[in-house]
């Protein structure tokens, strides 16, 4: 990576961190999830970045892959455990970061701390030739020492330009990964913990989509929307809310694109045991002797 690329990563990371902190300050009882998602995305644009994916706001037993859809009137309730996950890209270079916030109560402080401590330990292991299996083992050990369960089928991931998942996975348990970290790798590390099953699954969509193949189908309006998605989001995830700003019939058009398998819908992932889920995430760049946290 040249210095210019590293600077773009640093800028994306810095904006993502600020957006995460800004978003966390907006999560309060009675506030619409929809508004927080829109505020944070607007904040990212104003800071000179672009959202790398729609703001994720997963509540309670939901772990990931939910953003408010058009007309969603859900508000944060007292006691909600909220995973705010923010991605920012600068010229395709991504910073990915998440924090867990409990709304108005403090029942899950230890669960949240377990993911924060696990993340810190994982970051401490990040250097060239680190085995991702050792990182997963460290995450698991810390989460279990708090008497919670790591989520075994969610992982951290390496990233490349316009690629959220570039090949290397960083597991949250031991025995699940076989890769080795290299200098200059860009890696998002994201421990998830729960008091439930430690496994997520989902069928229902969470209003987050990705273009599979930009095939021109349908009439003029549909073709224009496909072109818009391809030019603006490339292969990164996008939302119905974003498309609606360009196309007032976005909701029905996206349904058509789903049926034609032009776009993919991410399933909303929940703990299969109905447990409460917490997550912490940072993006790091691997250096010669350790790593630099960019978020
Ligand atoms: Mn994330
Ligand atoms: Mn991530």
Strand count, sense and closure of the main sheet?
5 strands, antiparallel
Low-confidence stretches: none
Q: What class, by secondary structure content?
A: alpha+beta
Mean pLDDT across the residues is 97
Q: So what's the CATH class of the largest domain?
A: Alpha Beta
CATH topology of the largest domain: Creatine Amidinohydrolase
Q: Output the CATH homologous superfamily of the largest domain.
A: Creatinase/methionine aminopeptidase superfamily
User: Can you tell me the number of structural domains?
Assistant: 2
Number of helices: 7
What is the chain-wise order of helices and strands?
Answer: HHEEEEEHHEEEEEEEHEHHEEEEE
- Strand order within the widest sheet? 8-7-9-17-18
What gap, in angstroms, lies between the N and C termini? 18 Å
Approximately what portion of the residues adopt beta-strand conformation? Answer: 25-35%
The count of DSSP E runs of length 2 or more, i.e. the number of strands, is: 18
Shape: globular
**Helix percent band:** 25-40%
List of distinct ligands in this structure: manganese (II) ion
Overall radius of gyration: 18 Å
Based on the coordinates given, report the CATH architecture of the largest domain: Alpha-Beta Complex
Q: What's the layout of helices and strands?
A:
Elements: H1 3-26, H2 33-46, E1 50-51, E2 56-59, E3 62-64, E4 81-90, E5 93-102, H3 109-125, H4 132-145, E6 149-150, E7 156-159, E8 169-170, E9 186-189, E10 192-194, E11 200-201, E12 205-211, H5 220-233, E13 238-239, H6 240-246, H7 250-259, E14 263-267, E15 269-271, E16 277-279, E17 282-286, E18 291-293
Helix pairs in contact: 1-2, 3-4
The structure holds manganese (II) ion (2 copies).
């Amino acid at each position: 990576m040249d210095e210019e690329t590293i600077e773009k990563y640093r800028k994306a990371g810095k904006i993502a961190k600020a957006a995460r902190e800004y978003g966390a300050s907006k999560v309060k009882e009675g506030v619409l999830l929809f508004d927080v998602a829109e505020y944070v995305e607007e904040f990212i644009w104003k800071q000179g970045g672009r959202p790398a994916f729609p703001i994720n706001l997963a509540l309670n037993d939901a772990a990931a892959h939910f953003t408010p859809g058009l007309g969603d009137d859900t508000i944060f309730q007292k006691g909600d455990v909220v995973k705010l996950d923010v991605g920012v890209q600068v010229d395709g270079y991504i910073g990915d970061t998440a924090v867990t916030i409990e709304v108005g109560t403090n029942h899950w402080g230890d669960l949240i701390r377990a993911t924060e401590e696990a993340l810190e330990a994982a970051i401490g292991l990040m250097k060239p030739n680190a085995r991702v299996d050792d990182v997963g083992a460290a995450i698991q050990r810390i989460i279990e020492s708090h008497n919670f369960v790591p989520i075994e089928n969610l992982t951290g991931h390496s990233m490349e330009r316009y690629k959220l998942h570039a090949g290397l996975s960083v597991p949250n348990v031991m025995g699940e990964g076989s890769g080795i970290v290299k200098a200059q790798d860009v890696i998002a590390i994201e421990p998830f913990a729960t008091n439930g099953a430690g496994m997520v699954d989902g069928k229902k969509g969470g209003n987050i989509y990705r273009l599979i193949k930009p095939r021109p189908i349908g009439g003029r309006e549909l073709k224009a929307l496909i072109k818009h998605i391809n030019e603006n989001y490339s292969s990164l995830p996008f939302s119905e809310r974003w498309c609606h700003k360009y196309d007032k019939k976005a909701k029905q058009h996206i349904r058509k694109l789903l049926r034609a398998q032009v776009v993919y819908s991410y399933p909303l992932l929940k703990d299969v045991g109905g447990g409460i889920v917490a997550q912490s995430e940072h993006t790091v760049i691997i250096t010669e002797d350790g790593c630099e946290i960019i978020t």
